[in-house]
Sequence to fold (97 residues):
Amino acid sequence: MKNKKNYRASFILDMRGCSEPIDAIFTKLRGIVTDFGGDIREFKALGQKTFERAVNKRYLSGEYVQIAFGADSSAPTAIREKLRLDKTINRVFIENC
Fold:
């Protein structure tokens, strides 16, 4: 059995043109983390924040979410890969805690 490490994942959601309620996206994120063996320790919906430097003039702010979880060392890569093509996820940052 592998040792679990502590991680904090930060997500920036792109809700433009999304008909899904935000709570459904939160549930989807929780499910993806647990699908890859993560046990969620803390979930924070940080709300809408304006970007310091907007790359796209039509996309000036995003919904921020943080999830603290414990998982095997392969989980962060698997989570990033799973969300890579998801249009509602603009950015994914996963760091060791």
Observations:
- Strands lie at 5-13, 39-50, 61-71, 89-96.
